[in-house]
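R.M. (postdoc): so does anyone remember the format we settled on? I'll just put the structure tokens first.
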């Protein structure tokens, strides 16, 4: 059950070190004293701060301050430049190293700014738990999330939805994720083939298979496709399973955040020891790797 009413802050930050603007949408509990853990969510290619509202609002209702930065250069503006963006043009944006670097720095900068917001923004004043920081993302944002987890030691746990591992780089990905040392909940689906390349869904489990230094979880939704995670499908293209999967995504990710950002052993047990499998039922497969200290 949701515990908090949710309020929204729209603002825009400027990183003077990069002369770069970072629009952001912040979902936060409207009631409650806090302090609340922080989650930064990185959108996929062609997304914006306004996409993935169901997770931002859902997590905030369970006691999190959730910031959605918008990554200029790989955001929704690409559709204005090329409304019928071809697979080739999307791949060019995806594989542009500048976009990858900017995204990772956007998230690190967003962490800096949201912590500072505990002093500067009245509704967040005194409510930030700067020692409990999570990062999540979808598709291109999932790769951003994994890169942040490797390089920013403030990140304590991550959620990676549909991590893109195109076939042409699979051979180089053998040990790419093995250095990551934080717990991660990975999510994908049996029809999760992506937008930029016909990526076999099984490639998206590569980070889960490689990451051995902290607890890892993998949910593979039966029939889940790449776009189900966005929550932005237009009405006439909405699939009958979308609402079901959104509920399961929110249940599992909230329990994961509670376990690893709030230290809730009951939430960890619910996710890892059986009850969530019953909730998932025949709608997916749940796998885990528990690391014994």
């Amino acid at each position: 059950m949701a515990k908090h009413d949710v309020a929204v802050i729209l603002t825009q930050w400027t990183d003077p070190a990069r002369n770069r603007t970072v629009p952001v949408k912040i979902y936060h509990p409207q009631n409650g004293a806090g302090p609340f853990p922080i989650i930064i969510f990185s959108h996929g290619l062609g997304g914006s701060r306004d996409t993935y509202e169901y997770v931002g609002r859902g997590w905030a209702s369970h006691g999190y301050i959730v910031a959605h930065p918008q990554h200029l250069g790989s955001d929704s503006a690409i559709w204005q430049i090329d409304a019928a963006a071809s697979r080739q043009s999307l791949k060019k944006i995806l594989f542009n190293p500048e976009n990858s670097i900017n995204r990772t720095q956007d998230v690190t900068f967003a962490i800096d700014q949201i912590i500072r917001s505990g002093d500067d923004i009245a509704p967040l004043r005194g409510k930030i738990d700067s020692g409990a920081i999570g990062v999540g993302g979808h598709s291109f944002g999932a790769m951003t999330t994994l890169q942040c987890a490797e390089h920013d030691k403030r990140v304590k746990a991550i959620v990676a939805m549909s991590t893109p591992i195109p076939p042409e780089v699979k051979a180089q990905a053998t040990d790419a994720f093995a250095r990551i040392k934080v717990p991660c909940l990975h999510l994908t689906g049996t029809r999760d083939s992506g937008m930029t390349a016909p990526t076999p869904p099984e490639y998206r489990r590569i980070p889960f298979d490689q990451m051995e230094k902290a607890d890892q979880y993998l949910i593979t939704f039966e029939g889940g496709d790449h776009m189900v995670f966005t929550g932005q499908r237009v009405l006439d293209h909405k699939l009958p399973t979308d609402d079901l999967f959104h509920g399961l995504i929110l249940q599992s990710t909230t329990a994961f955040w509670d376990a690893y950002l709030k230290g809730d052993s009951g939430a960890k047990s619910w996710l890892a020891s059986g009850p969530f499998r019953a909730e998932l039922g025949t709608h997916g497969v749940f796998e885990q790797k528990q690391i014994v200290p």
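R.M.: ...and that's the designed sequence above, right after the tokens. Also worth knowing: DSSP finds ten helices and nine strands in the chain. The mean pLDDT is 90.
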